Amino acid sequence: MSSNDNNPKVVDLNQRTTAAALGERPAEAFGQVRTHALKRLTALATTLFENADDALFDLASKADSNAVQATYFDGMREVRKKRQQIELRFQEQLARQFIDFVAGRGIGGKPETNATGELSLSLVDNTELEESLAVASMVAKTENRLQRVLFALNQRLSHITNQRVEDANSPIGPTAVGQAFRQASGELEVELPVRLIIYKLFDRYVMGGLDAFYDELNALLVHAGVLPQMRATVQRRPGAPAPPPRAPGAPAVPGAPMPQQMPDGFDGGAGAGYLPVDAAAAELQANLYSSLRAMLANRRTDIDGATAAGIPTGYTTVNYNPNVAPLNIPELLSALTILQNQNLSAQSAAESAQVALKVKEELLGQAGKLRGETGANVSGADEDTIDLVGLLFEYILQDRNLPAEMQAMLGRLQIPFLKVALLDKHLFARRTHPARVLLDSLAQACVGWSEESDRDRRLHDKVKEIVESLLKDFEDDLGIFDRVRIDFEAFVETNKRRADLAEQRASEATRGREKLLDARRTAAREIMQRIENRPVPELIKNLLSRPWANYLVLVMLRQGDTSNEWRHALRFADELIWSVQPKHNAAERERLQAILPQLEKTLRHGLATVAFDENDVRRLMQQLNVVYQSLLQPAEPTQVTEAPPLELTDPMPLANQDAGDSVMASIEEEPDPQPAEPPTENWVQAVRELKVGTWIEFLDANGAKERAKLSWISPISSKYLFVNRKGLKVADRTAAQLAADLAAGHVTVLEEVPLFDRALDAIVERLKAAHAAKSPTATADEASQQPAAS
Question: Which InterPro entries does this UniProt record tie to the protein (predicted)?
Fold first, then answer.
């Protein structure tokens, strides 16, 4: 047939002709897709409504108040009433999206404009925002789950329509299906909780049924001869790491990136692999990422390019020029590689922040130069990725957990991480992504860094080496992040062993001092209780408050205060004090005579235990003998005859005792300084919740900062011991002192949540605040606060 022959060929479907013959019957193939889609998707919606009644009734029966129950029952009635109308409108919306797609207008999920041309989504209320986020979340999860089958389907649709079909503009993609149902369900007049239940059922029965639906469409097109030999996976580049062995039944490439976003031949670095992850945690991460995507998409609805409140000017949306084709991933990567090789690094956190704001502008400018055009466009999804990475690194450059020097160092990784995000969208959806794990590991190691604790600059130089290695060597091989991470974690582990040893010594020394001090105070109290306000000769006071108190300390440290030795030592003190009291009758003198040998034996044992000088022992015994001879006389003296007191030496002085101090010094030691005002209960509770391993930052009166880790909490004094990253003691504080310092801002508790998670949470809150600032309620509140016009 000649090239200008318009007569169609007859295609033998049994031979599954190649794509070369298919362009001659595109309308028929596309019509089959349309017919099957309308039939199957409408059937899935019918299944949803068949289950809605039971779901709402079950919720109503479990409601904990009459008002909530009434909400669900009203919802049941409204759903029954509007069901046929919604199903019909859902089918009409799907059909309209096919018409719009053929006309090149895209799907009907974009925000509608009002009469003045302004986008209504810029002023949506909270209910619409919740609805938008619910739809965006289920769409994103479905796209992630079905990325490979969607890739194949999009390629086949592109072939028969001569248009570039992606998830975002496909008339049968999850986005189109979700938006069609959202438009159709607008007929429902129900409370937000009921509406969200309907969306959950839509997610389960419609989005959950897309797996089989897309398989059917692919099979239909293959049977029609549309790209029957197309491979489901993209070829790996030569030299890229091979994927790990696959378990039976596992996906072809675990954690594979979105293929339609990939340069030809790139597999997303799946060979680098992902670390094991908890399924629940992975689901939470996917939901968070879905919310981010939805909020960023809503931000892009400002057609004039004006930035939303709270979003820096560096992240304004790109003014779309329909005459310029959007940049593809290879073009963006090429431009980023050029920027990566240029001198974009800064030496301070402030300079890095300025560079971070310019990356988007520099990227688009460089990409335009590569094309030979004055301007450049990017797709909405790629623009959101660029902005998200920019917001991530802006957070890093402001993160109080990181010292300023480390902020600047990690901030230089923005371009490599932007490359990663464009190559593999799982960077934001999976905590176990190799690049993400590396960044979290670097940030965690840097939390306790200070010039004082890193005088040899081992950690500083290692982090710098890693940053410069990624800037120099990373192009598109994601395996480099795993290799660098393994090397860095080995470095951290080696240094951690040294720090752990020093930390153990510091805590053991503190623990030993506390036990000794506690034993001394306990012994001092026991002796004081026995001699206070009693007529005891000075000789006996000195004996008990010095050498015998030291013996009590040793017994308590060795055997504890519940041992027989402890009880015997205290019994000796009681009997010694009794022995020197005046004896008023023969019975008392007989008892004294009987116990003297045992008293002498016990005393000699105790004095020998504390290494009391032998000459002093003899002199002490002589003086005691004088005392007891006086007490054993038949005449009943009114008071004991005092012998010249023995000057007792003290081989093991009590804490803070000078030579002439008594046991009272152990009790009357200078107490720990107390705050001027008792801290409030919320600050005390914050101190109680501190866990060993928590990092804090001390701020002294001169403004100097020192970072330290909580190493140990004393079970005796309840003091908190802090060490630096080398394991050396920095400070110890009582709970009251810490609470007062927290209240005064002299102590800051650093967050334990990984850097990437903290950043994503902060970005979500920031985007929510930006949206709230533009809502009608916020606008009305602001207007009410303005002074009335004169």
Answer: DUF1631 (IPR012434)
Q: Quick: pLDDT tens for 634-690.
A: 654 444 444 444 444 444 343 333 333 444 454 444 455 666 567 778 888 888 888
If we measure between CA atoms, which residue out of 425, 480, 477 comes closest to residue 261?
A: 425
Residue 494: pLDDT band (50, 70, 90) is: confident
Residue 748 DSSP SS3: strand
364, 378 Cβ separation under 8 angstroms: yes
- Phi, psi (deg, nearest 5) at residue 378: -130, 155
Choose which CATH entry (3.40.50.850, 1.10.287.1490, 1.10.10.10, 2.30.30.140) describes domain 681-753: 2.30.30.140
- Using alpha carbons, list the distances in angstroms from residue 605 to 114, 647, 648: 99, 20, 17
Q: How far apart are CA 560 and CA 374, in angstroms?
A: 84
Residue 400: Cβ within 10 Å count: 10
Which H or E run contains 707? strand 705-713
Whether 430 and 376 have beta carbons less than 8 Å apart is answered as no
Cα separation, 385 vs 26, in Å, equals: 34
Beta carbons within 10 angstroms of residue 29's beta carbon: 21
Q: What is the spatial distance between Cα 556 and Cα 550, in angstroms, rounded to a whole number?
A: 10
Q: Tell me how many degrees the CA angle 404-359-379 measures, rounded to the nearest 5.
A: 135
Task: In whole angstroms, give the CA distance from residue 396 to residue 407.
Answer: 6
DSSP 242: P
Contact call for residues 116 and 222 (beta carbons, < 8 A): no
Pair of tokens at residue 148: 């490979």
Nearest to 314, CA basis, from 349, 367, 356, 342: 356
**Residue 569 structure tokens:** 């030592």
Q: How far apart are CA 205 and CA 196, in angstroms?
A: 14
Tokens representing 529?
A: 């209780």
Distance, in Å, from the CA atom of 657 to the CA atom of 666, rounded to the nearest integer, reads 7
Token pair 């395996």 is found at: 479
In the DSSP assignment, the letter for residue 548 is I
* Helical H segments across 532-613, by residue range: 538-543, 549-559, 564-579, 586-609
Enumerate the CATH 2.30.30.140 domain ranges in the chain, comma separated. Answer: 681-753
- In the DSSP assignment, the letter for residue 11 is P
Instruction: List the Cα angle 788/789/790 in 5-degree steps.
Output: 115
Q: What is the DSSP letter of 471?
A: H
Report which residue type is found at 84: Q
Q: Quick one: residue 533, left, alpha or beta (phi over 0 = left, psi -120 to 50 = alpha)?
A: left
pTM: 0.52
φ/ψ (deg, to 5) at 113? -100, 155
